[in-house]
């Protein structure tokens, strides 16, 4: 893992955006893996602004998101499809047909998981994967204890994760209990990974990531075994 220490959230987002843009310029048909949550919003803002200036085009880019809540409609403002449309896709020149988010409303969820995994494989795999990290070390919605070999599957969310995400919902009861997530094996197959870590709430997770052992009890630790992973961390998560 290569670690880049950014002064603040803004610098973390700018560095990540420059890296994503460089990858798209090198390969205009990039398969880009995307994440939701508060952390990548600054990155998406930079990408939108660069796209508007004409510095980068998403016309031939294909995206695959990491995860989606089960049973939330795509038009629900808390769904990750809605989030991605609002935070990125609606504001850049991407073809929405080339943007993929698992369908949490599928009638056959197990089939949806297989189909999603196949779609990534048929596209040639993820070239560059953006990741955030949960305070418990989750990547995607792969909670502690998930096998490092896991592929796209339905998971039960940790109570800690539901609580962290309840800030977006009216009440705790409204927070979904399950999600579809690409697996740790799926994530590790990405040719390149950028993990973004921001804020004091992620301090312990960062410490454990860089100094802890590689263990399924702390899913992000698997990234220590990836040959091309950059961690961009802001100061609040370090000090
Ligand atoms: P956050 O979520 O960016 O909102 O902190 C990250 C995650 O849970 O993976």
Quick structural summary:
This protein is α/β, with parallel strands linked by helices and 239 residues long. It contains eight helices and ten strands.
Describe this structure in words.
- With 239 residues, this protein is of the alpha/beta class.
- Helix content is 33%, strand content 18%.
- It has helices at residues 9-26, 41-53, 80-87, 109-122, 159-165, 184-188, 203-211, 235-238, and strands at 2-6, 31-34, 62-65, 67-69, 99-100, 128-131, 153-156, 178-181, 192-197, 229-234.
- It has a 7-stranded parallel beta sheet with strand order 1-10-9-6-2-3-5. It has a 3-stranded antiparallel beta sheet with strand order 4-8-7, with helices on one face.
- The two termini are 19 Å apart.
- The relative contact order is 0.19.
- The structure holds 2-phosphoglycolic acid.
- 2-phosphoglycolic acid (PGA) is lined by residues 37-39, 132-134, 138.
Q: Please state the CA-atom Rg, rounded to the nearest Å.
A: 17 Å
The unreliable regions are none
**Gross morphology:** globular
Bound ions, cofactors and other small molecules, one mention each: 2-phosphoglycolic acid
Q: Tell me about the largest β-sheet.
A: 7 strands, parallel
Q: How many H/I helices?
A: 8
Proportion of helical residues: 25-40%
Protein traits:
seven-stranded parallel sheet; three-stranded antiparallel sheet; alpha/beta; 10 strands; about 240 residues; binds 2-phosphoglycolic acid; about 35% helix; 8 helices
Secondary structure topology:
Blueprint: E1 2-6, H1 9-26, E2 31-34, H2 41-53, E3 62-65, E4 67-69, H3 80-87, E5 99-100, H4 109-122, E6 128-131, E7 153-156, H5 159-165, E8 178-181, H6 184-188, E9 192-197, H7 203-211, E10 229-234, H8 235-238
Parallel strand pairs: 1-10, 2-3, 2-6, 3-5, 6-9, 9-10
Antiparallel strand pairs: 4-8, 7-8
Helix pairs in contact: 1-2
